[in-house]
Amino acid sequence: MKRAVFRFYAELNELLTRERRGSEVAHEFRGEPSVKDVIESMGVPHTEVELVLGDGEPVDFSWRLRDRARVAVYPRFRSLDVGPLTRVGPRLVGEPRFVLDGHLGRLARYLRMAGFDVRWDARAGDEALARIAAEEGRVLVTRDRGLLKRRCVAHGYCVRSLEPARQLAEVAHRFELATLAAPFRRCLVCNGLLEPVAKRSVAEQLPPRVRERCDELWRCGSCGKLYWAGSHVRRMERLLDDVLGGRYDVAGRSRMAKSTDRIEKQVLLRAPRARVWRALTDIREFGTWFRVKLETGFALGAVARGHVTYPGYEHFVFEATVERMEPERLLSWRWHPAPAGAGVDYSKEPTTLVTFTLEDAPEGTRLTVVESGFDALPPERREQAFRMNEGGWTTQVENVSRHVSGA
After folding, report:
1. 317 is a domain residue
2. Same domain? 68 vs 115
3. Mean pLDDT score of the chain, rounded to an integer?
4. pLDDT tens by residue, 226-245
5. What is the mean pLDDT of residues 24-48?
């Protein structure tokens, strides 16, 4: 039996079973299956993947798996162009157009409300949805991963949430819709374009209160439905403003009070503080769960330096200047977050501050990890660094939890 090791990054972990998230996954196989087939057998549709590294080199979906191969699988990069030679799927060109499966009717209305071309039919079957996506170059949005695994589907997205507003936040984030939106230009019922219409020509079709109060009216050029700016429009505007204006995160939660300057993660570790402190400060233990091979360890005022061992990131250097060390209570360092490429000089950029705080808890130790200072980074780096480290710390707290528990 042959064996390969896979590692999935960032939001792709949401599509894996819990025991596979944030860690290397061993896969046993016979023959020479394509890397696409193996990735999808683990639950990740090809439409979710942007970059695959096979033994450190960019490969396409047809690459044949070999014994002892190491495979790194990445989602779409929003701030970093990986280039046409390494992209495993075709680039989506122009403003995205969508086709949604029958269970996403409310999301279809929300996307139309934002001005996007959306085909939706509650009765459409899988064959029809896949055909429309392929023939019309539309993005297929569904919760059915099997549908997204069809080879004819080039662009797609598997929504995670069951709540429509959160689904809209996910799709807006995934396809960067904020700058493309043109709200209230499409019919919510049939997807047709709206046209201004003179009040006098449709006055008899209007409810009395609308006829008295509204002078601006629009009519769908396809189905003839009339629209006006009532109180419902203000509710719609608030929803779109929250989602497209960035006040909802990708899980749909309000971000009004959430800072983009600070990442905070907290986890209950079922181990005493002494054990957790050793995992944070011992050069070998830290390297095991953080996936870095340190040449120098942690000492007050010193620089801890080494190389990252995550597959696909081996060429990146880990370098952190220790600011505080209070045994079994607090460790903090400064570093340059989320490097965009090896060999790039970030020495003139501001650093972020990473702080680990340990507290006793009824069943072990409460570990809080905070990274702050992102707002001081150059604008072209800020969003990417925050997003990459937000996902990175989610993975790392899972890693340290498994490490100290012996799992």
Report:
1. yes
2. no
3. 87
4. 998 876 777 888 888 878 76
5. 96
- What range does the domain containing 276 cover? 262-405
272, 213: one domain = no
Q: What's 338's domain CATH number?
A: 3.30.530.20
Q: Does residue 27 have a pLDDT over 70?
A: yes
3-state secondary structure the chain: CEEEEEEECHHHHHHCCHHHCCCCEEEEECCCCEHHHHHHHCCCCHHHCCEEEECCEEECCCCECCCCCEEEEECCCCCCCCCCCCCCCCCCCCCCCEEECCCCHHHHHHHHHCCCCEEECCCCCHHHHHHHHHHHCCEEEECCHHHHCCCCCCCEEECCCCCHHHHHHHHHHHCCCCCCCCCCCECCCCCCEEEEECHHHHHHHCCHHHHHHCCCEEEECCCCCEEECCHHHHHHHHHHHHHHCCCECCCCCECCCCCCCEEEEEEEECCCHHHHHHHHHCHHHHHHHHCEEEEECCCCCCEEEEEECCCCCCCCEEEEEEEEEECCCEEEEEECCCCCCCCCCCCCCCCEEEEEEEEEECCEEEEEEEEECHHHCCHHHHHHHHHHHHHHHHHHHHHHHHHHHCC
Count structural domains, the chain. 3
- Select from 190, 213, 244 the last residue of a domain: 244
The pTM of the full predicted model, rounded to 2 decimals, is 0.61
Domain assignment present for 249: no
- The token pair that represents 328 in the structure block: 């079994």
Nearest residue to 188 via CA among 138, 122, 117:
117
Taking only the tens place, the pLDDT of each residue in 274-309 is: 999 999 999 999 999 999 999 998 999 999 999 888
14 within a domain of the structure (yes/no): yes
Measured CA to CA, the distance from residue 119 to residue 140 in angstroms comes to: 10
What are the structure tokens assigned to 347, written together? Answer: 């020495």
Tokens of 95: 């403003």
Instruction: Check whether 255 has a pLDDT greater than 50.
Output: no
What pLDDT is stored for residue 78 in this prediction?
54
